[in-house]
């Protein structure tokens, strides 16, 4: 998609932040009340803090690696991974670009492409 609109100077970076301790398990109505303490304790064993997740994302976004390819994916260990082939499928790229433009148009004023210097979409 980034190569589809080179004038926009856009990079697409997919990240998986890991399991982030947000307190959602304890407050969400998604899980039965009796199960929440168990899930909350399990979350504390394996989850990272929101601050650590923020550091991971900042490290990825500020590294030189994402600029080397128009589409990049990193996991929570900061390991680069192969990008899904759909990222380079011209028909899918066109559909996704249209979808994103329509979504942005519905949810706020979008900047003109000429006004953009470098933009990153974190998915």
Helix content: 25-40%
Q: Give the N-to-C terminal Cα separation.
A: 13 Å
Strand content: 5-15%
The class by helix and strand makeup works out as alpha/beta
Helix/strand order: EHHHEEHE
Strand order in space, largest sheet: 3-2-1-4
Oligomer: single chain
Molecular structure report:
- It is extended and about 50 Å long.
- The protein contains 4 helices and 4 strands.
- A hairpin with a 5-residue loop joins strand 2 and strand 3 (80-81).
- The chain has helices spanning 24-27, 36-46, 50-62, 90-107, and strands spanning 10-15, 71-74, 80-81, 119-122.
- It has a 4-stranded mixed sheet, with helices on one face.
- The protein is an alpha/beta fold.
- 10% of the residues are buried.
- The chain has one domain.
Task: Describe this structure in a few short sentences.
The chain has helices spanning 24-27, 36-46, 50-62, 90-107; strands spanning 10-15, 71-74, 80-81, 119-122. With 123 residues, the protein is of the alpha/beta class. It has a four-stranded mixed sheet with strand order 3-2-1-4, with helices on one face.
């Amino acid at each position: 998609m980034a190569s589809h609109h080179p004038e926009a100077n856009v990079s697409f970076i997919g990240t998986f932040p890991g399991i982030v301790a947000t307190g959602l398990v304890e407050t969400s109505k998604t899980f039965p009340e009796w199960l929440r303490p168990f899930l909350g304790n399990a979350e504390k064993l394996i989850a990272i803090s929101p601050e650590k997740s923020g550091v991971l994302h900042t490290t990825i976004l500020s590294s030189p690696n994402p600029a080397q390819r128009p589409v990049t994916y990193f996991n929570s260990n900061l390991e680069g991974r192969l990008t899904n082939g759909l990222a380079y499928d011209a028909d899918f790229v066109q559909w996704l670009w249209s979808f994103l433009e329509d979504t942005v148009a519905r949810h706020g004023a979008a900047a003109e492409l000429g006004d953009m210097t470098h933009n990153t979409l974190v998915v």
